[in-house]
Fold this protein.
Amino acid sequence: MMEKTKLIQQLQLEKHIEGGWFKEVYESDLKYNNRAILTSIYFLLDEHNFSAYHKLTSDELWYFHEGDSLHISMIDLKGDIHDVKLGKNIENGERLFYAVPKGWIFGSYVGKGFALVSCAVAPGFTYEDFKLYSQKELLKKYPKHEKMIKKLTRI
């Protein structure tokens, strides 16, 4: 397994506002309403960073590449919580791929070490379609998920 710092340097990853490191690696030339029909990024998280709870208006596809297990914690439209583990240990229920449904609130974290994934969004990602949640906002609406909400919020 390649070292985290080497991956960050070789892939030219930059700090991401929601935690971890990223690099946009693809934006389709095909447009719909002046918007790329698909975008994709590399995304790296380590045990000291997390991706805070947020929501997109499109499905987001996650592909596991390298490192340790990555958890995606999701709150569905009914308010139920789901946890999916990305990784290479398929026999233990880890997945190489997962699609986070549009409209679900989700965040991600690594228990130890780091994980490198790719994320793809269609139509292409724009910050207009991105909503970052505060701890107060989520606790008010989903008090039964307090432990995970406190783990995956910054504001």
